Amino acid sequence: MTAPRTLDEMRALFATATGGRTLNGVPHARARRGDHDLNPGMAVPADPLAAAVLVPIVEREDRLTILLTRRSDTLPVHTGQVSFPGGRVEQEDPDHIVTALRETEEEIGLDRSLVEVIGRLDTYVTRTGFEVTPVVGLVRPPFELIPDPVEVAEVFEVPLAFILDSANHERHSREWQKMTRHFYVLPYDGYYIWGATAGMLVNLADVLRAD
Questions:
Q1: What is the DSSP string of 45-105?
Q2: What is the CATH number of domain 7-209?
C-alpha cells in the first residue's frame, strides 16, 4: 500500500481501517494478540500486569515517521532494547490513554497536549507478564524532547513507509527455556527492532492494510 504522507491522511486511513469499532469510545483494531501468536502452545500469563505505550506518528516535511526509543543500557531488564515510550498503569490513571501519555511525558519529555490520540491497536500480551494497550497518537512538529537518561538512551524515528512494507517484517527465532521461540524483527538502519515492539508495528501495518 502507499503510505500516508500527512497526519490528515493518517487520521482518515486509521478511521476507515478500524471500521467504526470502538472500545470505551476509542477506535481500535480487532483482537488480543501477543508473543503466543507466533508460538502456538505457549501459555499466556493468567494475570498479566496492565500497561500502555504510545505509538507516536510524526509528520515530517516529506513523510510520516514512527518515534521509538532505545532503552538505557543501565536498566535491569530489556537493556538497550528498542521500545515505544510507555509503562505500567498506575492506580490513579483513569484509562490507558492517560497512562501512555503520562509515561511518554516522563520518559522523553513530549508534552501530552501535543499528542492527538486517534485510537488504539490490539491488546498485546507478553510472555513476561504484561498486557499492553498500544495507543496511537499523532504529533505535529515543532516539539521538544527531553529524554530521561535513566530510562532512555536514544530517541529515533523510522519512516512509516518502512513499517508498512511487509518485506521488512522478518521472522526470527532463538532458544528460550529449552524451546524455540519465534518473533518478528524489523531491522532498520542499525537498529534491531524485535519482540513486542515489532509485533505491535506489524499489527499497525495489518490494520492500515485492512479492507
A1: PSSPEEEEEEEEEEE-SS-EEEEEEEE-TTSSSSTT-EE-SEEEPPTT-SSHHHHHHHHHH
A2: 3.90.79.10
pLDDT per position as a tens digit, 9-67: 999 999 888 876 665 566 665 567 877 788 887 777 888 999 999 999 999 999 999 99
- What's the N-to-C CA distance of the chain in angstroms? 11
Residues (pLDDT < 50) of the chain are 211
Q: Domain segments of the chain: what residues?
A: 7-209
Q: What is the pTM of this model?
A: 0.92
> How far is 6 from 61, CA to CA, in rounded Å?
9
